Amino acid sequence: MKICRMVLCVLLCLSLLVACNQPTDKEAYYKIQKKLGELESYECIARVNVINDDEEITEYTYKQIFKKPDSYRLEVLYPDSIKGNLMVSNGKIAWVYSPSINHTYKIDFTQKQQNELLFIGYFMKNYITSKESEINSETNNKRQLIVISTDIPGGNQHFSKQKLWFDRKSLLPTQLQILDGQNKPVFNVYYEDFNYNPKLEDNIFHLNTQSQ
After folding, report:
1. Would you indicate the residue range of the signal peptide (predicted)?
2. Which of 45, 70, 147, 198 satisfies CB 3.0 to 4.6 Å to 91 for a cystine?
3. Domain enclosing residue 129, as ranges
């Protein structure tokens, strides 16, 4: 009986120790906001699910690179039919390069804006300027998460709101979701191999446009 009580006491102490080591919501929010405030660049693998009106899902995988304030690079890794296609923007102009036909062309403003929604750097701009932002905590499959929600400016009913999830322990982003005006998801972006603040050269955000 004494042994059982001793074991229970040890387990209780261990549980309390673990709980004490867990940051409070306020501490976790502060750490994530500080991490984002220090974000100058990042690179990762982004698995993107595009959801149409019939709730059918089309999957893409990209190598995603971003450099502050607004340069980005998207290289298609999947599907194989467009593998190697490259989208780059220096913040003013965006291009697409298709290696299968060796052709480079500019993309229009609407498509450029849509691409930008997939990047955490642009999410941060919306979060900072929006009056309708909030931060909450969630648990998913026993994983402790922090989620930041913000409106997308412009009043576009197709792209109305964004939600960004972070792993509470590692402070790494795990998922970005774009929702329409009816609060239905239209994009789900899942981040893997996320690297904060890698050193990036400006030339990776430019393409030879002579073949437009």
Report:
1. 1-19
2. 70
3. 24-205
pLDDT at 4 (0 to 100): 40
Residue 76 inside a domain? The answer is yes
9, part of any domain:
no
Measure Cα distances from 66 to 49, 56, 135, 188, 209 in Å: 20, 29, 23, 18, 21
How far is it, in rounded angstroms, from Cα 32 to Cα 21? Answer: 17
Q: Domain tally for the chain? A: 1
Q: Residue 209 has what pLDDT?
A: 54
Token code pair at residue 14? 């261990």
H or E element that contains 74: strand 71-78
Report yes or no on 135 lying in a domain.
yes
DSSP state of 126: H
Please tell me the chain's helix, strand, coil percentages from 3-state DSSP, rounded to the nearest 5. Answer: 25, 40, 35
User: Are 72 and 66 within 8 A, CB to CB?
Assistant: yes
What is the predicted pLDDT for the residue at 128?
87
**Is residue 211 assigned to a domain?**
no
pLDDT digits (tens, 9 = 90+) for 29-77: 999 989 999 999 999 999 999 999 999 999 999 999 999 999 999 999 9
CATH code for the domain in which residue 133 is found: 2.50.20.10
Look-up of token digits 């467009």: 82
